[in-house]
TrEMBL record:
Signal peptide: none annotated. It comes from the Bacteria. Its main location: membrane. Gene3D superfamilies: membrane protein fhac: a member of the omp85/tpsb transporter family. Pfam families: Omp85. Keywords: Cell outer membrane, Membrane, Signal, Transmembrane. GO terms for cellular component: outer membrane. The keyword Transmembrane applies. InterPro entries: Bac_surfAg_D15, D15-like. It is found in: Membrane. This is Outer membrane protein assembly factor BamA. It comes from Flavobacterium degerlachei. The keyword Zinc does not apply. Residues 375-738 form the Bacterial surface antigen (D15) domain.
Length: 771
């Protein structure tokens, strides 16, 4: 018996190997192909002939391979796993359960040879070649069978490629021909370039767009003809741009704007434009028909670009529509142009606007992760009035409450409870003594906010915060945005400081600044640039730069100087005076449709002077946490090489600094379905500008690079489209608070050691991507 077991044991690897071969053989997918059918395994394209160069043949082959249809079943190392799971699942009896999921979500049906149209594919390959200058191309198609499989081979024989010798534009004296000639300088048709039908189509669209900017409302790209003369020279062509003789007369006329009529209370289900004369308001160049007097006419003067007598142009057409939508007041925006009943070539412009409900209430329950690594829920109640003063102003009053619980690091019940309220009012214009005009499709706005928040950090202290701001928001375009607050006021007042926290202050006096009364006021400005919405680009970027100038004018006027004892107080509280600058740069490198490398760099600096000896705690920089250096608890890194940890029975005090440097990079890839994965590296630290005896090693020096914290990790992202749930598991590989020379701890990594895991592994649960 023992001998038999030994023999079976020795042959086990062979049996496993044979079983694997048997299993994988099923992945070929031919065992369930119908009797009179064959499994299509793909196509091979061969480029013959000596006329095109080797480089041209290679490029043409790559283009043609993308055109052949259908695509065969997905294969990996000769196996077809998706087809295998499709066959394994069989025909499910109902549209749910494991079998249905395997067949419809994991698997894919067999691609049969009977679905392949050889003649159609052959003509597609030939047409594409000729459309790219390889005139008189020949193509053939053939198929071969092997068992229950079939594959196809296409042979394409292109002739020598044709290139553009000359491009001729219309020379007649008509207004439209003259404008077409003026576009020649920016023509896509270039002498010496290869003939391309796609480029010709794009050129027609370019000319059409240019004519639309010059009043030719009824023109269309189809009214342009590009004739090809291939007899002018050896493998050369002349392209003659012409206006079709049968084009409608309307398309050749240049139109100006006559009347601009606005229906600001239009029902989308009604086509009746009739109205009583007492509801018609004439305002400058506009006719406003508003029977219920819902909106001030001045809104439309600021929003619509067309004025009476202007030539029609597509840019103003689109900008006007964009601005109407951007007001946030209308549910539907419809526009129509009609030939005016007047002498000359004029258009009447009509705008049909359906308002959103004026007032609304919205309740939100949010899953939330804040900058201090606290995760919890928040309940928001929002009341909105979208037209409070009849000028499309938006008033929003909200009340909120939430509880936040730290999910990593030392917590011991130090949770945060928050309640508060905020009111904001947005005017769709710049309220200022000067005139502000922009050609953007986004309405410039003025915003005022006023808010209050009560925060209770259990076992430690409570904090009341009053905030107010007044400023401007404007976008140059969808990529560039500006935010200028003429003033931003914050007043923070502590309450209920516990004996426990007071004991920590006695041991670490720097903690007292957290509960000091703070008064911060002054202008702030931020600029944001991003092109991340362009999903097809390989490289996309995001940049945000901000500057905070707190108390500078007040400090200059009052002559405040804390160093000489001339501290100025407002309502018995010294106001903060500092300059703070922060820059954040992100780069996204698209590798494939489902993978990318995302990177971020943050550089920030703050300098207190005049009425302040140091920056207020809430305005200082922090590091660590779910959206920062994930291998360290939030606000636990630095400053510099300072070790801010305390005994295990107390909380971990938040560490802050005047300077910040942070770098993050992560590889993101789709794993399956809504599950995505990431591998990441985070690095950075914060520093103080001045020496602090209570925090040795915290001051910035020339050796700052030796004090960089580094962490690595991996994570999963569950992308539900409306919400991204993120889990990250990270550990440090460089600890700046260790003695110099011992800060790299990569050699100490020991996943099998429970002590190491407890001290180093950090699990982060968060909402959304870190950057």
């Amino acid at each position: 018996m023992n001998r038999t077991y030994s023999i079976m044991k020795n042959k086990a690897p062979l049996l496993y190997f044979l079983f694997a071969i048997l299993l994988l053989s099923g992945c070929s997918g031919t065992n369930k192909i119908p009797k009179d059918e064959l499994l299509y395994t793909g196509a091979k394209i061969k480029i013959e002939g000596n006329e095109p160069s080797k480089k041209e043949r290679k490029a043409l082959k790559t283009e043609l391979e993308l055109l052949v249809r259908p695509k065969p079943n997905y294969s990996f190392l000769g196996f077809r796993p998706k087809l295998f799971f499709y066959n394994l699942a069989g025909q499910p009896k109902k549209e749910k359960g494991l079998r249905y999921w395997l067949r419809t979500k994991v698997g894919e049906p067999p691609v049969l040879y009977s679905k392949v149209d050889l003649e159609y594919n052959k003509s597609v390959l030939q047409n594409h070649s000729e459309n790219n200058g390889y005139f008189n191309t020949k193509s053939t198609a053939d198929s071969t069978r092997s068992g229950k499989k079939a594959k196809v081979s296409y042979t394409v024989t292109p002739n020598k490629r044709y290139f553009i010798r000359e491009v001729k534009f219309p020379q007649d004296s008509s207004a439209i021909a003259s404008l077409v000639r003026k576009t020649e300088r920016r023509s896509l048709l270039k002498t010496g370039e290869p003939y391309s039908l796609e480029v010709i189509k794009t050129e027609r669209e370019r000319i059409d767009a240019r004519l639309k900017e010059k009043g030719f409302y009824y023109f269309n790209a189809d009214y342009l003809l590009v004739q090809v003369d291939s007899t002018v020279a050896d493998h050369k062509v002349d392209l003659i741009v012409k206006l079709k003789t049968d084009s409608p007369e309307l398309s050749k006329l240049q139109y100006k704007i006559n009347n601009v009529v606005v229906y600001p209370n239009y029902s989308i289900n009604s086509d009746d434009d009739s109205t009583s004369s007492d509801s018609i308001v004439k305002y400058k160049d506009f006719t406003i028909i508003d029977s219920e007097n819902l909106f001030k006419p001045s809104i439309f003067d600021r929003t619509l670009y067309f004025k009476k007598g202007d030539y029609y142009n597509r840019t103003n057409h689109n900008l006007s529509l964009n601005r109407l939508v951007n007001l946030g007041t209308f549910k539907f925006v419809k526009n129509q142009f009609k030939v005016a009943d007047t002498i000359g070539n004029y258009l009447d412009a009509y705008y049909y606007l359906t308002p959103l409900p004026k007032k609304s209430i919205r309740v939100e329950v949010l899953a939330k992760t804040n900058s201090a690594n606290y995760t919890g829920t928040e309940l928001n109640l929002n009341w909105s009035n979208r037209n409070v003063f009849k000028g499309a102003e938006q008033l929003t009053i909200s009340a909120f409450g939430g509880v936040e619980v730290q999910v990593s690091g030392q917590n011991n019940g130090f949770n945060v409870y928050r309640v508060g309220t905020e009111a904001s009012l947005i005017w769709p214009r710049i309220i200022a003594p000067f005139k502000f005009e922009t050609s953007s499709g986004f309405v410039p706005k003025t915003k005022a906010t006023l808010g209050y928040e009560f925060q209770n950090r259990t076992k430690l202290y409570s904090l009341q915060t009053f905030k107010g701001s007044f400023g401007y928001l404007w976008k140059e375009n969808e990529r560039k945005e500006h935010l200028l607050n003429l003033t931003e006021i914050t007043y923070a007042s502590p309450q209920n400081v516990t004996p426990l926290y007071q004991e920590q202050i006695d041991a670490n006096p720097s903690l007292e600044k957290v509960i000091e009364k703070q008064l911060i006021f002054g202008p702030t400005y931020s600029y944001t640039f991003t092109n991340t919405m362009q999903k097809r680009k390989k490289h996309t970027f995001y940049y945000k730069g901000s500057i905070d100038l707190a108390g500078n004018v007040a400090g200059l006027v009052s002559g405040a100087n804390i160093k000489s004892g001339d501290t100025v107080k407002v309502f018995s509280v010294p106001f903060s005076q500092f300059i703070k600058i922060e820059n954040e740069f992100r780069h996204y490198l698209k590798l494939t449709e489902d993978s990318q490398i995302a990177s971020r760099v943050i550089v920030g600096a703050g300098f207190a002077y005049g009425n302040s000896n140091e920056m207020p705690f809430i305005k200082q920089f922090f590091n660590g946490g779910t959206n920062s250096i994930r291998a360290f608890r939030a606000r636990s890194i630095g400053p510099g090489s300072f070790d801010g940890s305390t005994t295990a029975n107390t909380f971990l005090p938040d560490q802050s600094g005047d300077l910040k440097l942070e770098f993050n990079t992560e590889y993101r890839a789709k794993i399956y379905g809504l599950v995505k994965g990431a591998l990441f590296l985070d690095a950075g630290n914060i520093w103080l500008l001045k020496e602090d005896l209570d925090k040795p090693g915290a001051k910035f020096s020339k050796d700052f690079m030796s004090e960089i914290a580094v962490g690595v990790g991996a994570g999963l992202r569950f992308d539900f489209s409306f919400l991204v749930l993120r889990t990250d598991l990270a550990f440090p590989i460089r600890k700046p608070y260790l003695p110099d020379g011992n800060r790299w701890v990569l050699d100490k990594v020991s996943f099998g050691n429970s002590t190491w895991r407890n001290e180093n592994l950090v699990f982060n649960l968060a909402i959304g991507y870190p950057f």
